[in-house]
Amino acid sequence: MKRSWKEEYHRSLKSMDTEEHIDLAFYRPIGFMWACLAERLGISPNAITIASIFLGICAGVLFYFPVLWINIIGMLLLIWANSFDSADGQLARMTKQYSRIGRILDGLSGDFWFASIYIAICLRENAFEPFFSDRPWLIWVIAIVTGVCHAKQASMADYYRQFHLYFLKGEDGSELENAAELKRQLDDSGITWKNNFWKRLTMRTYLNYTLQQEATTPSMQELRKELHHRFPTGNIPQKFRDDFREKSFPLMKYTNILSFNWRTIWLFISLFIGQPWLYFIFELTLFNIIAVYMIVRHENICRHFTRMLQEGKY
How far apart are CA 115 and CA 60, in angstroms? Predict the structure, then answer.
């Protein structure tokens, strides 16, 4: 039976637990239309992701100019890029064209966007007067530190969403990875630096990305080990899944704050008032505070459920 448009749209979403209000009101409907068009034309999710990378980089270039109307064009391009970023995942879910390279590309797209934005702000004439006019190198230091924090925030927000989806939808509905398994796959792949440098680099980068996530979450890794020990087939009791989801759900709003929408709101505000360097300050203060709070709370939740398992409560 052919699904209705409404059914197809809801099938294109990750889950209502993890969707952000701005996405549901704006980006997901637009992304769904792009996804439907791409499906008709036979365009792959990865092609849409690559197009979003170019749009986002172009947006960043336009933020270099201290002219508001040019910046507004850049804002519109960035919004367009994010609608494509929404569409690639929606198309993948609609057509079941999942791939690890698609997930890697999707993660890299935002990195390319914001790298171009950060560089444009640092190079922008009068972007940091009067505070940095005598020390122009300082804005580069701030930008690098901000970029590192941004990457960490986005990485952990994605990791917690995938862990939540694992309990909500199971292994097939989540993109939760295991670094040991990724390393085994890389070692067994036969891909070397000599015979396929770029693929090896991509896989190695993704492995390092996952290792960093696991290193930041020791209590989550203990919980995963305990679950694997008690339920080696992955048949985790529904009661446990529901209880974890209930505790994890309040943190999803923080993972969404640390995603694209709220970052760009602050970015656009700083551009409208002609002080784009203020975006770095928002990243280094507000977003870092939220990220630390989110990590601490999630680790406490994982410790609680590990104890419950060890005490035989499930």
Answer: 8
Residues 168, 241 contacting (CB under 8 angstroms):
yes
pLDDT tens for the chain, residues 1 to 314: 456 677 777 777 777 888 888 888 899 999 989 989 998 998 998 899 999 999 999 999 999 999 999 999 999 999 999 999 988 888 888 887 777 777 777 778 888 999 999 999 988 866 566 566 677 778 888 899 999 999 999 999 999 999 999 998 887 778 888 889 988 988 888 888 878 888 888 888 888 999 999 999 999 999 999 999 999 888 899 999 999 999 999 999 999 999 889 999 999 999 999 888 889 999 999 999 999 999 999 999 999 999 999 988 88
186 neighbors 203 (Cβ within 8 angstroms)? yes
CB-CB contact of 85 with 30 (8 Å): no
Estimate to the nearest angstrom the gap between the alpha carbon of 264 and the chain centroid. 14
Does pTM top 0.85 for this prediction? yes
Q: How many residues does the chain have?
A: 314
Helices (H), the chain: 5-11, 21-22, 28-41, 45-62, 68-95, 100-123, 136-169, 179-188, 197-216, 218-230, 238-248, 252-257, 260-272, 278-282, 288-310
* Cα–Cα distance measured from residue 161 to residue 77, given in angstroms and rounded to the nearest whole number: 27
The closest alpha carbon to 106, from 254, 263, 259, belongs to 259
> How far is residue 210's CA from residue 215's CA, in Å, rounded to a whole number?
9
